[in-house]
Design goal:
mainly alpha, two-stranded antiparallel sheet, 7 strands
Length: 378
């Protein structure tokens, strides 16, 4: 394969490293969820990848959620809604919400998982606008952001009631509805969260050092004020200390919280009892965050992958050999994309067996091409 002078090239190592990053992102979404065994025996799993089956539990019926393994084995060929992750959920597959379908992993399950929480997400609807995603009637691309309390997904462009910070991937969001349901959070927001409408960025994008410093100074001032009133308060309740400071903010719109904000919530007995009564005790748990869940999935994938001998072998190939392999690799990626699009068009879940068959077909085609080339050359 010839390379033109001045032509921008990329090594196969670069290509594979990019694909590895995509694999890590996929692993982050699954978070180590087991693709081979139903999660039902684990009870109410702290956080896991979930799906809803529109074929078995359509709108108008009872909401139900299924684990990753059941989406492959029990609901192959069904129309599924990907729910990303939900906390404290037990797999419903095959229980009383499914008329004729039995779970292929555990045929006898409890009729109802009483501690599961459901929303319109389980029928493929999201946000305050109650629309599907992607929305076929909305031609403007928009990002969806998940509230960490209700776990619904809201449109970032128009339904949050505030400006989305550029560093949103580092922050957790609580929607306005949940803020109003748990008004103590407004007190913390006045001291810990960025002011609504202030976009922490500069023209080049991203969170600026100046904005970060400003936020830290606000926190320091808040802490200093709390320390001054600490002697006057009984019980050492952080929430009461913040309330005594009297700092206010506009109580409207969603709130974006900085990293580690949960560690700053009061954990006195009174507040813990209040969290439990409101069903938000998980706010004190740093491991509950989606970031912690994603990191768990990435770590698991990296441990399983270990040292890849292919990457080392590629370093020993010359540039032309690497380009030849890139050409074959890109052809394979195009064919794989077309293969997967057929499943997406039919609303089917891709199983490990489907992928194995795809690569077997690729190998057979490669052999036939090699045999044909040998025939014509002989």
């Amino acid at each position: 394969m010839a390379v033109k002078e001045g032509e921008e090239t990329v090594s196969l190592v670069d290509v594979l490293e990019e694909d590895e990053e995509l694999e890590n992102e996929a692993s982050a979404v699954l978070g180590g969820s087991d693709a081979d065994q139903c999660s039902f025996p684990q009870g109410y799993v702290k956080r896991q990848a979930l799906y809803a089956c529109n074929t078995c539990t359509p709108k108008g019926g009872e909401a139900a959620g299924i684990c990753l393994a059941c989406s492959y084995k029990c609901h192959e060929g069904h129309e599924l809604f990907e729910l990303y992750t939900k906390r404290s959920f037990r797999c419903d597959c095959g229980n009383s919400k499914f008329r004729d379908l039995k779970c292929k992993f555990y045929s006898e399950k409890e009729q109802i998982n009483g501690e599961n929480k459901y929303s319109h997400n389980f029928f493929g609807l999201y946000c305050t606008c109650n629309r599907p995603y992607p929305d076929p009637d909305d031609q403007v691309e928009d990002e969806m952001i998940q509230c960490i309390i209700c776990e619904d997904w809201l449109h970032g462009r128009q339904h949050l009631g505030c400006m989305v910070p550029d560093c949103v991937e580092l922050q957790e969001m609580v929607c306005e509805s949940c803020m109003n349901k748990h008004p103590f959070l407004w007190t913390y927001a006045a001291h810990l969260a960025a002011s609504p409408g202030i976009k922490e960025e500069e023209e080049g994008g991203g969170c600026t050092e100046e904005a970060s410093t400003s936020t830290e100074k606000a926190k320091e001032n808040s802490i200093a004020s709390c320390k001054r009133t600490h002697q006057e308060m009984e019980g050492g309740c952080k929430l009461k200390e913040l309330q005594a400071v009297g700092q206010k903010r506009d109580q409207s719109g969603a709130v974006f919280w900085p990293p580690s904000w949960r560690s700053r919530l009061c954990s006195c007995d009174g507040c813990q009892n209040s969290y439990a009564a409101a069903g938000v005790s998980f706010l004190l748990d740093e491991a509950d965050t989606v970031l912690a869940y994603e990191n768990k999935g990435k770590s698991s994938e990296q441990e399983q992958r270990g040292h890849d001998p292919l990457m080392s072998a590629l370093d020993n190939l010359n540039h032309v050999q690497q380009l030849e392999i890139i050409h074959e690799y890109n052809d394979m990626k195009t064919e794989l994309k077309d293969f997967l699009q057929r499943f997406a068009a039919e609303g089917k879940v891709v199983t490990p067996e489907d992928i194995r068959q795809f690569f077997e077909q690729q190998q057979n085609r490669k052999r036939r091409r090699a045999d044909a080339a040998q025939f014509y050359c002989s």
